[in-house]
């Protein structure tokens, strides 16, 4: 954009090296899926191994010659590396190969640019692209250089490169300001939901694990869901009604990937904050994937990075229809749900997911027989409005006995609206968890 680079096309030669750096190696199969998701047409893949990357070309001179021959043979317009290249390595490779060179970060940015649909999503992608581009503003428009010595050659005191950097900084600042407004609006929405005691459940997981398909299955919506990496970029939130819990917000989030570039994590922080403020995380996992445990570890790393690692989490093992498995709930030693096995595509096991969510979010349920005097009709009406009354009977003294089951937060809100306190309630028998609840109230 700011300097002349070779044109790019879809015919691509892929490069994957095993670097002995101690870091978890990239998956070449996932790399090829990324290229296909970006619309590329892989014509060849070059494999190799090195102790350390070559300082000038990342690959050695022998591999560089092999790449030159492959590019010429297949008339490739693009060479993509499954690694992060430095700006100088990228420029040197383009000069040697006479075609466009892209690294893993640039490839993921390109996919994000294609997938973003909302205004917010496009802003976040542009911010990540500009931050990535700001490190590559070199050899820019030297033919327009005006800062020279001599009569008639003295320029305005700013080189073209400095101008480009200034323009980039201005645009980045403008986008950050807009995204800050988005964060503020989201925070206001979260505070409103907290005041209304509406819990938020966020779907997180590795890309292409089936989050959007599960979201559609739960909500009955038709958000975009495809068998491709990063099908979802824009967060989608819907209100659903769950038994014993009531209104709940379900949020679909962007998928994670191994070694997710920090530029993307920073740019999408406004979206990922939705997950960090959730009451419960549903970690959706592709149960049929060979690298299942590796994907789980990568998601856990990103959750820790965004500050969501300590939130309550329920693992959802999806795609059991590919394994011919029966749906089930896995529990810990205390009997609490820790994992659900289901198929979002067929809907098998969805009722078990609802059961597990209800158990995890409905831990603070108040259940018992409440005695109400005839003068407490407002409280009675609000309990019925909340569908908290399972049975009602009248006593000889004119009072009514209500069998209630209601979330503690909902009861707290109702009592506040009728100007009552918890210790003013009369129960038939022992009050439910009386001392603990009274402290919370």
TrEMBL record:
It comes from the Bacteria. The keyword Nucleotide-binding applies. Gene3D superfamilies: 6.10.250.2860, GTPase HflX, N-terminal domain, P-loop containing nucleotide triphosphate hydrolases. InterPro entries: EFG_III/V (IPR035647), G_HFLX_dom (IPR030394), GTP-bd (IPR006073), GTP-bd_M (IPR032305), GTPase_HflX (IPR016496), GTPase_HflX_N (IPR025121), GTPase_HflX_N_sf (IPR042108), P-loop_NTPase (IPR027417). GO terms for molecular function: hydrolase activity. The keyword tRNA-binding does not apply. Signal peptide: none annotated. Monomer. Associates with the 50S ribosomal subunit. NCBIfam families: GTP_HflX, PRK11058.1. This is GTPase HflX. It comes from Gilvimarinus gilvus.
């Amino acid at each position: 954009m700011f300097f002349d680079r070779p044109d790019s096309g879809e015919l691509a030669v892929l490069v994957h090296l095993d670097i002995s750096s101690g870091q978890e190696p990239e998956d070449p199969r996932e790399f090829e899926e990324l290229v296909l998701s970006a619309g590329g047409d892989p014509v060849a893949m070059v494999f190799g191994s090195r102790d350390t990357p070559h300082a000038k070309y990342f690959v050695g001179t022998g591999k560089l010659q092999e790449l030159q021959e492959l590019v010429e043979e297949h008339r490739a317009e693009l060479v993509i590396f499954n690694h992060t290249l430095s700006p100088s390595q990228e420029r040197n490779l383009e000069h040697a190969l006479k075609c466009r060179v892209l690294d893993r970060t640039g490839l993921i940015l390109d996919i994000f640019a294609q997938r973003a649909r909302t205004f917010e999503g496009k802003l976040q992608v542009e911010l990540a692209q500009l931050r990535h581009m700001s490190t590559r503003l070199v050899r820019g428009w030297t033919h327009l250089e005006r800062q020279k010595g001599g009569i008639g050659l003295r320029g305005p005191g700013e080189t073209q490169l400095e101008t480009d950097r200034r323009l980039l900084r201005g645009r980045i600042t403008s986008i950050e300001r807009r995204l800050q407004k988005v964060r503020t609006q989201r925070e206001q929405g979260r505070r409103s939901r907290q005041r209304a005691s509406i819990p938020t459940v966020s779907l997180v997981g590795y890309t292409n694990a089936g989050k959007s398909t599960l979201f559609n299955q739960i909500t009955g919506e038709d958000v975009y869901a495809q068998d491709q990496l990063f099908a979802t970029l824009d967060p989608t939130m819907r209100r659903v009604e769950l038994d014993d819990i009531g209104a709940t917000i379900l949020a679909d989030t962007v998928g994670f990937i191994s070694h997710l570039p920090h530029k993307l994590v920073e740019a999408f922080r406004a979206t990922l904050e939705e997950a960090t403020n959730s009451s419960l995380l549903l970690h959706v996992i592709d149960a049929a994937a060979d690298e299942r445990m590796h994907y789980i570890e990568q998601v856990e790393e990103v959750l820790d990075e965004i500050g969501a690692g300590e939130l309550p989490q329920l693992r959802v093992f999806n795609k059991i229809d590919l394994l011919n498995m029966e749906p089930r709930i896995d529990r810990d030693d205390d009997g609490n749900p820790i994992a659900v096995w289901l198929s979002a595509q067929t809907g098998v096991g969805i009722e078990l997911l609802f059961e597990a969510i209800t158990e995890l979010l409905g831990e603070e349920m108040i259940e018992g027989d409440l005695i109400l005097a005839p003068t407490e009709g407002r409280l009675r009406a609000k309990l019925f409005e909340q569908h908290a009354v399972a049975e009602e009977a009248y006593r000889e003294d004119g009072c009514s006995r209500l069998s209630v089951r209601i979330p503690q937060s909902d009861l707290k809100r109702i009592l506040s609206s009728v100007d009552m306190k918890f210790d003013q309630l009369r129960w038939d028998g022992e009050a439910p968890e009386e001392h603990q609840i009274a402290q919370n109230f």
